UniProtKB/TrEMBL annotation:
One of its GO terms (molecular function) is kinase activity. This is phosphoenolpyruvate--protein phosphotransferase. Coiled coil: none annotated. Keywords: Cytoplasm, Kinase, Magnesium, Metal-binding, Phosphotransferase system, Sugar transport, Transferase, Transport. Its EC number is 2.7.3.9.
């Protein structure tokens, strides 16, 4: 797919004549900016000039105040008495909608728009057509600029562009404090009040710290160029320097640029050469902007479009362009493509509209306390990486970028999704206590790291970790995991722009085995489909029920080329060591035979060509589809090991979508029906002496982990952060006593809540923290 598709303009490039119109407007605005005059007069002159150039009857500027209200600051055409009187909340009316979404609105019949709201003091009922653009500065919405006409007029793209450019100039006036003298006491433009955003919890943990605005690190102050040719040359030089930097990072072979970081850099290299993107920036410079203002202008257009795109692949690609534009801006302004760690506070909480995975990896991990995103979903690349790095994340915090400033105090609660900006002292104190408590706990867990994981009555319970990215690997040592019980290979595929090449796969797998240093590692073959989307994999038809669709083994067996390449990379990476391969979403036993035949063909192929092979090869299956529960003996006979995928097994047994919190949390994971199913698996594994693990989320919750161990599931794989708490619980538990306590309720009509209570009481009596 050509990258031009994302960078190119929506329609055909503007014609020379239209450009001339916008050049003249810019020239006039520039003259107004250069003349000495009072701020109100300057704003009034600007709106008058815009109205004249665009043959509009109305032109108005609304500025966003600290209390989230948009106030009319200047107008020509509306009732002049409404200036500094007329107000709209963020999200209210057309103007509020533009500010809240940071997107322009171009309407021939404004009054028919569902968001239209009539403000009697302005007299705007006369006007039918409406063009409004957000006043943006460094990614932050500071207000809205509007033109209106009586006639049902369609404003052209070129007029929208001209308005956006002038809006940048007004943004500069607001940001530099030029308009401060115009605001009345108590409703200033500087946004300094406490605000709580109710976002979505995306990665667990609590972060207390200070805002680092991801996007406004670079502030463009020089807007207009004096010499177009010189600015075009500056842009070309910055672009070539940026490309060289990326090439250099890629060729350095530095471990910091391996794995997922490398995949993203390769995408950047492709985009840095994108002709459509470069042409649009050049066009903006030809229209009178400086190189940096041109880059920012194209970036703003891209952001506006990003907010309308729902396709996850396009969104990731457009946010890659956004990252790249930031790098280019830094290159133009400071001659340095990456931000300096020096300016980062010790307790940085990154606040961004959206963000690429590579940009997060650019920040020094030891200073990061959290991440707040206006967008972001559980499957966004940056969220996957943040979770692997154990950074608390809240997403969906609309408006947070506009309301925050670098250095503001901020709290991100990755458990509830709440974000407290400039928190009140009591809120801050409560959270600080929570963080101290968690830190004390972490310290205790660290002291347990090298203690063997054995119950108080001497039963070993092996604790392994789940992983999937290169950034997970330091945790193998730090968490005290006995190995990697689940390596989700699809994560490398999910954060890449295209299918990772065989060599990249092999490199990652080898690094994983190296980091594990002899501890067992179970690689799960690609588990794509369902909620694990590879946006570039377009062969998949749209499915009504993707969780029940063409995924994991089904897809792997129908498209054996994918699995074959992966298996070959795994076999090569594990040459001379043990290789444990696990098949996801097995539904019928014959799928294991088919996969085994494919794997053995690859073994044969490699050995024919003289490649070193793994010392031992074990093939196991995930048990996560209920059909297998009815042939457990057959399953245990067929494989070298089994791992229970309790996330999916529970989802399918209870017909409850794991990603839908309305139903996912409705049913009790400790309900006797589910536990009896787990026990029948444990009993079958014991009968056949087939090693059994469980690698779903419940393994990482101490109370559930105790229940699992009591059922006889004594190898558990979990997120690395859960190993300490689970081990602490295991060490204090007399397994025989707990087993006896739940044996009867398990069989005799108790509820999941009863079983949970029994374990909770046991834990309280034995000072076990749950
Ligand atoms: C599971 O389903 O429990 C599991 C471990 O796999 P995933 O969460 O990756 O689907
Ligand atoms: Mg699963």
């Amino acid at each position: 797919m050509s990258a031009n598709r994302f960078a190119g303009p929506d329609g055909p490039p503007a014609t020379r004549d239209k450009d001339a119109g916008s050049r003249v407007l810019l020239k006039r605005i520039r003259e107004i900016m250069a003349e000495p005059m009072a701020p109100q007069q300057r704003l009034d002159r600007i709106v008058a000039q815009i109205a004249q150039s665009m043959v509009a009857e109305v032109c108005s500027v609304y500025a966003l105040r600290a209390d989230g209200v948009l106030e009319l600051y200047a107008t020509v055409g509306l009732n002049p008495k409404a200036v500094h009187q007329s107000q709209l909340r963020l999200g209210q009316g057309l103007v509020g909608t533009i500010a809240a979404s940071s997107r322009p609105l171009n309407l021939a019949e404004a009054q028919k728009h569902p968001a239209f709201e009539y403000l009697p003091e302005t007299g705007e009922e006369l006007y039918n057509s409406f063009l409004g653009v957000p006043i943006l500065r460094a990614g932050r919405t500071l207000g809205v600029l509007v033109v209106q006409n009586e006639a049902h007029r369609a404003y052209g793209d070129d007029e929208g562009e001209a308005m956006e450019t002038v809006a940048m100039v007004i943004g500069e006036m607001i940001a530099t404090g030029d308009l401060r003298s115009l605001s009345s006491a108590g409703v200033e433009l500087d946004l300094a009040k406490p605000v709580t955003h109710h976002g979505q919890p995306l990665s667990e943990g609590i972060g207390l710290g200070h805002v680092v605005l991801h996007e406004p690190r670079v502030v463009v102050t020089a807007m207009f160029n004096d010499d177009t040719q010189a600015e075009l040359e500056r842009l070309a030089a910055a672009l070539s320097s940026l490309r060289l930097t990326i090439d250099d990072m890629l060729s350095r072979g530095d471990v910091a640029f391996e794995g997922e970081h490398r995949d993203v850099l390769e995408t950047y290299r492709m985009f840095a050469h994108d002709k459509g993107w470069v042409q649009r920036m050049e066009e903006a410079i030809r229209n009178g902007l400086t190189a940096e203002a041109g880059v920012e202008k194209v970036q703003s257009d891209m952001r506006a479009r990003l907010s309308t795109v729902t396709d996850p692949y396009l969104r990731e690609r457009m946010s890659d362009f956004d990252d790249l534009a930031n790098r280019l801006l830094r290159q133009l302004i400071s001659g340095e493509p990456s931000h300096g760690a020096k300016s980062l506070p010790e307790d940085a909480i990154i606040v961004a509209r959206h963000m690429g995975a590579a940009e997060l990896l650019d920040y020094p991990r030891d200073r990061l306390r959290g991440l707040v995103l206006e967008e972001g979903a559980p499957t966004s690349h940056v969220v996957i990486v943040a979770r692997a790095m154990n950074i608390p994340v809240a997403g969906g915090a609309k408006g947070v970028v506009a309301m925050s400033d670098s250095g503001d105090a901020i709290i991100v609660d990755g458990l509830s999704g709440h974000v407290h900006l400039r928190p009140q002292p009591d809120v801050e104190a409560a959270y600080a206590e929570k963080v101290r408590f968690r830190a004390r706990r972490q310290e205790e867990y660290r002291t347990l790291r090298d203690r063997p994981s054995v119950t108080a009555d001497g039963h070993p319970v092996s604790l392994l970790m789940n992983a999937g990215l290169l950034v997970d690997l330091p945790q193998v040592d730090q968490s005290g995991a006995a190995g990697i019980g689940l390596f989700r290979t699809e994560l490398q595929f999910m954060i890449a722009a295209t299918f990772p090449r065989a060599e990249a796969q092999e490199r990652l797998y080898r690094s994983v085995l190296d980091a594990a240093a002899g501890r067992p590692v179970t690689f799960r073959t690609l588990d794509i489909g369902g909620d694990k989307v590879l946006p570039y994999f377009r062969n998949a038809p749209d499915e009504e029920n993707p969780a029940l669709g063409w995924r994991a083994m089904r897809l792997a067996l129908d498209r054996p080329g994918l699995l074959r390449t992966q298996v070959r990379a795994l076999l090569k990476a594990a040459s001379g060591r043990e290789l444990r391969l696990m098949l996801p979403m097995v539904t019928e036993l014959h799928e294991i035979d088919q996969a085994r035949a494919l794997i053995m063909r690859e073994v044969k192929h490699l050995s024919r060509f003289g490649h070193g092979l793994p010392l031992t090869l074990r093939i196991g299956a995930m048990l996560e589809v209920p059909s297998l529960l009815f042939d457990l003996d057959g399953l245990m006979e067929k494989v070298d090991f089994v791992s229970i995928g309790s996330n999916d097994l529970f989802q399918f047994m209870y017909a409850a979508d794991r990603g839908n919190s309305r139903v996912a949390d409705r049913f009790e994971t400790l309900s006797p029906t589910f536990l009896r199913a787990l026990k029948s698996i444990a009993d079958a594994a014991a009968r056949h002496e087939t090693p059994l693990t469980l690698c779903g989320e419940i393994a990482g919750r101490p109370l559930e982990a105790l229940a699992l161990a009591a059922l006889g599931i004594t190898t558990l794989s979990m997120s690395p952060a859960a190993i300490g708490p689970v081990k602490a619980a295991i060490l204090k538990t007399d397994m025989a006593a707990l087993r006896a306590a739940i044996a009867d309720p398990l069989e005799n009509g108790s509820t999941g809540a009863d079983i949970r209570n029994i374990i909770r009481e046991y834990a309280e009596a034995h000072a076990i923290a749950l």
